[in-house]
């Protein structure tokens, strides 16, 4: 394992399967770059649909490599759960940030950018810029 500081990415979804699948997709599309810590935090502790502050905090701790952690969310209550954790201030690693971006496209952009060794500002900007991706 490298001593290189990397931005960690946490994918917060209402579904454990969605979070894990988007993490797999983003890591796969990042190709041969540096292995970015990507942690899914989906569903509830019991395996149901929803969000869990405990799972999000654990994923953020697991993804922390000293350069900050970008939290990407899917839907409304995931955002509210992350905002509550950020407001508490002691549950998440220092330098943890909620990133406003589309979930799938933003995750890919964040992981690809983080794999270059970019800082948290650059990772967040790349993920947010995914709003401008046009399909037609």
Q: What do these coordinates show?
A:
- 44% of the residues lie in helices and 15% in strands.
- It is of the alpha/beta class and 136 residues long.
- Strand 3 (69-73), helix 3 and strand 4 (96-99) form a beta-alpha-beta unit.
- The longest helix is centred in the N-terminal third of the chain and has 14 residues, at 16-29.
- The radius of gyration is 14 Å and the shape is globular.
Which SSEs are present, and which pair or pack?
Blueprint: E1 8-13, H1 16-29, E2 38-42, H2 53-63, E3 69-73, H3 76-88, E4 96-99, H4 103-114, H5 120-129
Parallel strand pairs: 1-2, 1-3, 3-4
Helix pairs in contact: 1-4, 4-5
Q: What portion of the residues fall into strands of 2 or more residues?
A: 5-15%
Number of continuous helical runs: 5
Q: State the end-to-end distance.
A: 42 Å
* Helix-residue proportion: 40-55%
How big is the Rg?
14 Å
Largest sheet: 4 strands, parallel
Task: Please outline what is shown here.
It contains 5 helices and 4 strands; from the N terminus they run E-H-E-H-E-H-E-H-H.
Comma- or semicolon-separated keywords:
136 residues, four-stranded parallel sheet, 5 helices, 4 strands
């Amino acid at each position: 394992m490298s001593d290189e500081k990397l931005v960690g990415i946490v994918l917060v979804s209402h579904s454990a399967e969605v979070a894990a699948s988007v993490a797999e997709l983003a890591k796969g599309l990042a190709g041969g770059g540096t292995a970015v810590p990507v942690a899914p935090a989906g569903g509830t502790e019991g395996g149901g649909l929803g969000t869990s502050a405990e799972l999000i905090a654990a994923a953020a701790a697991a993804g922390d490599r000293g350069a900050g952690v970008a939290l990407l969310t899917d839907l409304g209550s995931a955002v509210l759960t992350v905002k509550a954790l950020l407001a508490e201030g002691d549950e998440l690693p220092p330098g943890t940030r909620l990133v406003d971006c589309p979930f799938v496209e933003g995750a890919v952009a964040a992981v690809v950018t983080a794999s270059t060794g970019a800082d948290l500002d650059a990772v967040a900007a790349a993920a947010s810029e995914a709003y401008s991706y046009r399909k037609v």
